[in-house]
Amino acid sequence: MRILLTNDDGIEAEGLACLERIARTLSDDVWVVAPQEEQSGKGRGVTLTEPLRVNRFGEKRFAVTGTPTDCVVLAVGDLMEIRPDLVLSGVNRGHNVGEDCSYSGTVAGALQGMAFGIRSIALSQSLERYHDEVNAHWETAEAFAPAIISRLLAETWQDGVVMNLNFPARAPEDVKEVEVTVQGFRGIGEMHAVKRTDLRGRDYYWMSFRGEKQAHAKGTDLRAMDDGKISVTPLHIDLTHRPSVHDLKGVLGGAPPKSLAAE
After folding, report:
1. pLDDT along the chain (263 residues), means of 10
2. Exposed, middle or buried, 257 (CB in 10 Å: 0-12/13-18/19+)?
């Protein structure tokens, strides 16, 4: 099995080294094509307005001056002579659950693999809190990911599906359960901009998260992280809200309206 690894934390990230160890328990044909610099929060962004540079660090190891999506596109289309059988993206430092999935570069790397018809898995390791001094429990992802991936690969996946694995912020001996979950949703918008002023008196902003404690619904990826469980969520890229399609067909369809709707 030929495995392609990517991430959004960059080529030098601890999580990528963890992912390499995981991958090598499954195969000895492991390729790494990862961003040169951190690309967290870039989602499915592709680089269209500037060239991409590739730096080679070994026979099967490359850094790209672009996003995770760029990395997978270059790997499959140019850098690898034969397409991979599996794409693994991560291991991200911090979980990717709930609406994180819509802007996660880690999930995006897996989605691009899926777009090429390659089975793809995103992996993330939750943190007690997001701060440089907090050490992630990489040993937890490393302990459980190989067997979970192997079990997933033994199953038949429906087209257009990627698997999103999230490991709780606990040591391996404290993790007792795996749960197949649905994508959750936080009750309030956690993302906000923090306004600051530089030394020249000019305002600038840092994007941030409030990180407020919330009660999450059972069966969701968010709740699994709260409960110290490993979360496995099958995701797909179809954003269509099908109940609204049904409702709107009653008021739109056929010839386009020429008058404003009645108030």
Report:
1. 98 98 98 96 94 96 98 98 97 95 96 98 90 86 98 97 98 98 82 91 87 84 97 96 91 87 61
2. exposed
